[in-house]
Design brief:
The protein is about 55% helix and about 15% strand. It is an alpha+beta fold and about 425 residues long. The radius of gyration is 24 Å and the shape is globular. GO terms for molecular function: acyl-CoA dehydrogenase activity; flavin adenine dinucleotide binding.
Length: about 425
C-alpha cells in the first residue's frame, strides 16, 4: 500500500474543503436540514455538476469520473468534516453500486449516467436496520413479513407489484428512484430480490421521519400494489451484492466519521485556547492536554484504518471483508469520543442543545445506531477473518464450565470433610 496521495487526490480534497467551508458552515447546515429536501439543492447541483461527486467512483462508460474508492473516501472525509446533508450516501454509496452489480446492460446504461450527473437521486430501501441489511452486523435483510416486517413482491402479467413497508430509508423521502428489497416465492421457494420503483409511482407513500441526526434524512416508505421492475435477473445473488456494497460503504462511512471527529477535535482545541478558568486558558491545564492528546491519537488511528479500507476496496477486495467493518468500528468510536469530549470541554455552553458541538454528537450517536453497534462490527470482522473457528468458542465455554463445576465440586467435598473432621 502506497500511503502517499497523488496531486489529483490532494486537489479533490482541497477543492471540496474550500467549497464546503464557504457554503456549508453550521448555520447553513441547520438551515438546509429544515427545508423540504433536507439539504441545500443548489449546493448539491454544484457538487454534482461542477465536481462530479456522485459519479466519482463510477466507471467513465457510465458517465462517471472513473476514480477509485480512495478518492471517494477522501471526498467523504471532507463532507463528514462539514456534516454535509446531501443524497451522496444514499445515491453514490448504496444505490449506484447495487445497480452496477446486479442490473442488466439496459438498466445500467439508463440509470447510472443519470446518477453520476446528479440528475437523478436514488435510495436503497432495505427492511431492517441498514447495518444489518448490508451484512455489517448480524440480522440480515428482513425482506419478508408483510407490512410491519418488510415488502412482498408478486408477479402481475409481465411485471411485478410490491406491497409492504420499509423504515429508515436514507434519503427515501426525496429520491427519484427507489431500489427496494422484497420477498417473493412463498415459503417453498422464498427468496429476496431487488426491484426498481419510480419515485412518482402510483401507490407509493413516503413520509420523512423525525431523527436524532437531522443531517441524515430518513423516511418511512409504504408500498400499496406499487408497480416495479426487477433489477437484474431472478437468479441474482442479492445477499452477496449487498454484502459487497456494505463493505465498500463501510470504508467511505469510516472516512466520513473520521472527518467529523477531526473537525470536532479541532473546534474543541480552538475553544480551550481562548476559554479561561482561574485566570488562564483551559487548554494550558495538563489534564486537558492529556485528554486532547488521547483524542488526537484515536482520530489518527481511525484515519489510518479508514484509508487502508479504502485502498483495499480497489486493490485487495478480500481484505475489505474485514478491513471495512473494523475501520468503521474504530472511526465511530473516535467520532463518539471526540464529540463527547468536545461537549465536556466546551463547559456550560457546550451542554446547550443549540450549540454546534451537538451536531457532531448527534451524528456520531445516530451513525452507530444505523450501522453498528461497534462491538458487533468488530465481531463481524473477527468471524470473517477466522479468528474463532467454527464451534471453538462453544467448546471453550463448555470446557471452562466443566472445569468450573469440577473445581466447585472438589471445593465442596473438601469443605464437607473439614466440617466432619
Amino acid at each position: 500500500m502506497d500511503a502517499e496521495f497523488t496531486a489529483e487526490q490532494d486537489g479533490i480534497r482541497r477543492a471540496l474543503r474550500d467549497l464546503l467551508t464557504k457554503r456549508c458552515g453550521p448555520g447553513e447546515v441547520k438551515a438546509a436540514v429544515r427545508t423540504d429536501a433536507g439539504y441545500d439543492e443548489g449546493l448539491w447541483e454544484r457538487l454534482a455538476g461542477a465536481m462530479g461527486l456522485p459519479g466519482l467512483a463510477l466507471p467513465t462508460e457510465y458517465g462517471g469520473v472513473g476514480c477509485s474508492m480512495t478518492e471517494l473516501a477522501l471526498a467523504c472525509e471532507e463532507t463528514g468534516r462539514a456534516l454535509l446533508p446531501s443524497p451522496l450516501l444514499a445515491t453514490a454509496l448504496l444505490a449506484a453500486p447495487v445497480v452496477a452489480a446486479l442490473g442488466g446492460d439496459h438498466q445500467r446504461n439508463g440509470i447510472l449516467p443519470r446518477l453520476a450527473s446528479g440528475e437523478l437521486t436514488a435510495a436503497l430501501a432495505l427492511p431492517g436496520a441498514p447495518g444489518a441489511a448490508l451484512g455489517l452486523v448480524p440480522g440480515g435483510c428482513e425482506a419478508g413479513g408483510g407490512r410491519a416486517g418488510g415488502v412482498q413482491a408478486r408477479r402481475e402479467g409481465d411485471g411485478w407489484l410490491l406491497y409492504g413497508q420499509v423504515d429508515q430509508v436514507l434519503d427515501g423521502h426525496r429520491a427519484g428512484l427507489l431500489v427496494v428489497a422484497a420477498h417473493t416465492g412463498g415459503y417453498t421457494r422464498g427468496r429476496t430480490l431487488l426491484f426498481l420503483v419510480d419515485g412518482a409511482a402510483e401507490g407509493l407513500s413516503r413520509v420523512r421521519s423525525a431523527t436524532l441526526d437531522e443531517t441524515r434524512a430518513q423516511a418511512r416508505v409504504e408500498l400499496r400494489e406499487v408497480p416495479a421492475v426487477l433489477l437484474g435477473h431472478d437468479g441474482a445473488d442479492v445477499a452477496e451484492a449487498l454484502r459487497r456494497t456494505g463493505d465498500a460503504a463501510a470504508a467511505a462511512l469510516a472516512a466520513e466519521a473520521v472527518g467529523a471527529a477531526d473537525r470536532a477535535l479541532a473546534n474543541t482545541v480552538a475553544y480551550v485556547r481562548v476559554r479561561e478558568q482561574f485566570g488562564r486558558p483551559v487548554g494550558s491545564f495538563q489534564a486537558v492536554k492529556h485528554r486532547l492528546a488521547d483524542l488526537y491519537v484515536r482520530v489518527q488511528a481511525a484515519r489510518s484504518a479508514a484509508y487502508y479500507a479504502a485502498w483495499a476496496a480497489g486493490e485487495e477486495p478480500e481484505e475489505l471483508r474485514t478491513a471495512g467493518p473494523l475501520a468503521l468500528a474504530q472511526a465511530l468510536e473516535a467520532s463518539r469520543a471526540a464529540a463527547g469530549e468536545g461537549i465536556q470541554l466546551h463547559g456550560g455552553v457546550g451542554f446547550t442543545w443549540e450549540h454546534d458541538a451537538h451536531l457532531y454528537f448527534k451524528r456520531a450517536a445516530a451513525d452507530e445506531l444505523l450501522f453498528g453497534p461497534v462491538h458487533q462490527l468488530r465481531a463481524t470482522a473477527a468471524e470473517r477473518a477466522g479468528v474463532f473457528r467454527r464451534g471453538e468458542r462453544g467448546e471453550r465455554g463448555e470446557r471452562a464450565e466443566g472445569s468450573e463445576r469440577g473445581e466447585l465440586g472438589e471445593r465442596g467435598e473438601r469443605t464437607e470433610m473439614e466440617a466432619i473432621g
